[in-house]
Each structure stands twice: as C-alpha cells, then as structure tokens.
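Lecture notes, continued. The same structure-token format from the folding unit now serves as the input rather than the output. Read the line below as a description of shape only.
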C-alpha cells in the first residue's frame, strides 16, 4: 500500500518519469519516509505496552547479572536475522530496546545482524550463488553480530548514548514504577502510551527525513556500474575500497543481491562483492544520520569503525573460501 501510494504521488500527481534519476529518488524518499515513520510509531507503541505489562526490568537485570557466556549476543543476532529490516528500518526497534533498558551491547548485536541477514535475501542468495556460499554468508552474518556485540560491550559505551535516549530511559522507568503501583486498565494506559510513541517519532523525524533524503539521492543518482572498475581481482585494495565506497549508498539486502550477482558475472570476486553488499546494508550515511539522535558521534564512529574492519576481514576470508 505504501509503495502504491508513493507511485501515485510521485508518478501520478507529480508527473515525474519513473525511468528518470529524479523520479526514482523522490519515489524512494516518500516510500521509505512513510514506512520508517510508521514503523517507528508502531514499535514505540508495542514497546510502551511491553514496558507497562511485562517485567522489562527483570529481563534487564537478568541480562546484566547472569553469566550467559555470550549467548545473549547470539540470540540478539539471531533475532536480527529473522527480522526483515534494512539498516534504517532496524533503528526504531533498536530505540525501543534501549528505551526498555536492554544492555547496549546486546542491542548492537541486533543492529549489526538485522540488515545483513533476512529470509528474503537468503532465498535470493541461495538461488544466485548456491548452498555453500549462502551458508557461509548466513553464518558469517550471525558471527559478526555476536562478536560485534561482545567486543563493543567490553568498551562500556553506554556513556556515549545521547541525552535524549537517557531521558527516554528515565521516563520509561518512572512510568513503569507508577503503573506498577496503580493497576490501571489498558484503555486508560493506552492514551499515555500513544503520546509517548508520538513524542519519540517527533523527536527523531528530522533525522529520519535527512537520512532518507541522503539515501534517496544515492539510490537515484549513483549508477550501479560506478564501482566495478575498481573492484577487480587484480587490485589488492579491492576489498577495503569496496566497503568504503559502499557506505554512501543505501539499500536493503534483498535489493542489493541482484547488484552483487551482476558484479560477480562481470568478474568481481564473490568475497569482494559480498563485502560491498555488507557495507551497503550494514553501514550507510542515512543510518549514521538517524543514529545521531540516539548516539553521540564518538559512539557512531566506534560502531562504524569496528564494522568496517569486520567487513574488510570478511571480504578477504570469503575470497579465500569461495
């Protein structure tokens, strides 16, 4: 429905050419803006209900105090793998986790894996590259999410969360305590839950629109064959260059798999192409812009730096194994 509305608005009402760079960019902007803002609002409502009725404090205490031997990161990465979100669409759920008091390192495992692995991309990858390559891709995505959350958790990065998120956490805790003292029926709690969800959307809408605007420009105006001549097998620097060049672009995993297939058909090594794909779906300027409302720049820099290093190492390993 959202895509049909965006098509009607851009190609029908605005009369833009669907084949033009401008038409594709504007269509992408309206579609993704509506989708992500709706997703953010709905997830905020769900997390508000969870905070009101379920013992999030107990879950947070359990994750912080129990020795789970790293399995909390694996389960977060696995949950990310089964959610069909791109990097920007994952951020609303990430905000909900942080607001609910789930440890930052665990939520980062989700944020890493969610855009990298999803069922649609896996099905397309299986059809394009076979079982062996798909298995390596899925296992590596889960491993990166688990390892990334574990390593980032050792750095105690909570101090780099933005004041806005800390305020959300405090208000959520105060609201939960008040509701635990007075058992209000759901119909009386719902208005406050909706108001809180709207406050969250209103707080990040500018960052969402700026981020999607950057992504739309890249989506509409950067040609798919722009990077091909730099990523050939003869270039030792092809893998790091592929990851770095991928950051300005923006697409979900399902959207980038056909591009990867074209790259491989034109002689680019599969590992280099997968590293490019990971950079596109796992790191992007739109994602960084949207995360700025949640994280400070030092935390964004640490997150992007660690993931860039992971993707580069993975690209070289893929080229060795595939």
């Amino acid at each position: 429905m959202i895509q049909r509305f965006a098509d009607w608005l851009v190609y029908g009402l605005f009369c833009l050419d669907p084949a033009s760079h401008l038409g594709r960019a504007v269509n992408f902007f309206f579609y993704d803006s509506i989708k992500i803002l709706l997703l953010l609002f709905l997830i905020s409502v769900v997390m508000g209900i969870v905070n009101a009725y379920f013992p999030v404090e107990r879950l947070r205490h359990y994750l912080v105090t129990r020795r789970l031997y790293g399995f909390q990161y694996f389960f977060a990465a696995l949950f990310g793998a089964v959610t069909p979100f791109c990097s920007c669409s994952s951020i609303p759920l990430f905000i909900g986790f942080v607001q609910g008091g789930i440890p930052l390192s665990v939520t980062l495992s989700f944020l890493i894996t969610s855009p990298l692995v999803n069922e649609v991309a896996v099905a397309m990858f299986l059809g394009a590259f076979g079982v062996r390559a798909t298995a390596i891709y899925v296992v590596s995505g889960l491993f990166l999410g688990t390892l990334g959350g574990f390593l980032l958790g050792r750095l105690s990065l909570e101090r780099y969360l933005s004041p806005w998120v800390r305020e959300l956490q405090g208000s959520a805790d105060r609201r939960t305590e008040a509701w635990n003292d007075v058992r209000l029926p759901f119909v009386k709690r719902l208005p406050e839950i909706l108001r809180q969800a709207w406050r969250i959307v209103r707080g990040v809408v500018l960052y969402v629109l700026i981020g999607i605007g950057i992504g739309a420009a890249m989506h509409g105006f950067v040609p798919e064959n722009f990077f091909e001549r730099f990523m050939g097998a003869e270039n030792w620097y092809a893998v790091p260059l592929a990851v770095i060049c991928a950051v300005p672009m923006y697409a979900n995993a399902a959207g980038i798999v056909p591009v990867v297939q074209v790259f491989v058909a034109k002689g680019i090594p599969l590992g280099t192409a997968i590293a490019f794909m990971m950079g596109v779906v796992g790191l992007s300027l739109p994602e960084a812009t949207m995360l700025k409302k949640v994280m400070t720049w030092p935390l964004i820099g640490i997150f992007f730096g660690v993931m860039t290093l992971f993707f580069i190492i993975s690209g070289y390993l893929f080229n060795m194994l595939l």
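Point for the exam: The chain has a mean pLDDT of 76.
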